[in-house]
């Protein structure tokens, strides 16, 4: 299974970088992992709705250019479906059983994802109605993907 994470912005915080490195290493025994960082747009404190859409559009074009053909695309969106860890594992397992061998997760920037990216997605996933920094979300996503593989393989994990 190939897992690709397309994420807007660079990770600056050392502790998040270390966590990403650790979960990437752990995941290497279960899947091929590719993390792609997309440059984020510089965003001032206050944006008009139109300016926000322009930022989403520019970042969205860069994201769309990195999605592999035939990949099952899961966009992280506050309006997406909330799943338990077990449900995410079952979703991944079901995709594998049905012949999917390539999943792309997309994490937007500080203003979210463009409508084009959301419409390209096969599934919209929400981790919570809360808002998380997109840098931290990458670490949380990796941990949940790792947990999914542990569940799929019947290995112990913390509930």
UniProtKB/TrEMBL annotation:
The keyword Chloroplast does not apply. GO terms for molecular function: rRNA (pseudouridine-N3-)-methyltransferase activity. It is found in: Cytoplasm. SUPFAM superfamilies: alpha/beta knot. Its EC number is 2.1.1.177. It catalyses: pseudouridine(1915) in 23S rRNA + S-adenosyl-L-methionine = N(3)-methylpseudouridine(1915) in 23S rRNA + S-adenosyl-L-homocysteine + H(+). Its main location: cytoplasm. S-adenosyl-L-methionine binds at residues 76, 108, 127-132. Keywords: Cytoplasm, Methyltransferase, rRNA processing, S-adenosyl-L-methionine, Transferase. GO terms for cellular component: cytoplasm. It holds the Pfam family SPOUT_MTase. Belongs to the RNA methyltransferase RlmH family. Homodimer. Specifically methylates the pseudouridine at position 1915 (m3Psi1915) in 23S rRNA. This is Ribosomal RNA large subunit methyltransferase H. It comes from Paratissierella segnis.
């Amino acid at each position: 299974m190939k897992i690709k994470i397309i994420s807007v912005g660079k990770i600056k915080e050392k502790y998040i970088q270390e966590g990403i490195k650790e979960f990437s290493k752990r995941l290497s025994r279960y899947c091929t992992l590719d993390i792609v960082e997309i440059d984020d747009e510089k965003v001032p404190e206050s944006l008009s709705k139109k300016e926000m859409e322009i930022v989403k559009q520019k970042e969205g074009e860069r994201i769309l250019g990195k999605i592999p053909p035939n990949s099952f695309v899961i966009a992280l969106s506050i309006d997406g479906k909330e799943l338990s860890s077990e449900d995410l594992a079952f979703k991944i397992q079901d995709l594998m059983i049905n012949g999917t061998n390539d999943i792309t997760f997309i994490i937007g920037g500080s203003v979210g994802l463009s409508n084009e990216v959301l419409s390209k997605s096969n599934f919209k996933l929400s981790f919570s109605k809360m808002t998380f920094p997109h840098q931290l979300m990458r670490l949380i996503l990796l941990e949940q993907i790792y947990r999914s593989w542990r569940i799929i393989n019947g290995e112990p994990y913390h509930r």
